[in-house]
Amino acid sequence: MQVVVRDNNVDQALRALKKKLQREGVFREMKLRNYYEKPSEKKARYKAEAVRRARKLARKRAQREGLIAAPPPRN
N or C: less crowded end of the chain, CB within 10 Å? Predict the structure, then answer.
């Protein structure tokens, strides 16, 4: 991973790095690896994540088809 520092602006580069790490899921993985997770807990978490993804996809599909109202746009 590479972040370019422009005009000696380290704060901006640090913000960009944090954003990239967040997108990659590094912080989440570090948090999960902080302690031992039992195989049964891991399985339950994977299933819950799959359900969450499926619901999100169904919600987006329903919004596209006009079955439910889309959320108001953020400013």
Answer: C
pTM: 0.61
Whole-number Å distance between alpha carbons of 8 and 13: 9
Say how far apart CA 57 and CA 48 lie, in whole Å: 14
CA distance 68 to 59: 8
Rounded Cα gap, residues 73 and 75, in angstroms? 7
Asked if 27 contacts 21 with a C-beta cutoff of 8 angstroms, the reply is yes
- Positions in the chain whose pLDDT score sits under 50: none
Q: Where does the chain have alpha helices with state H?
A: 10-24, 26-33, 39-65
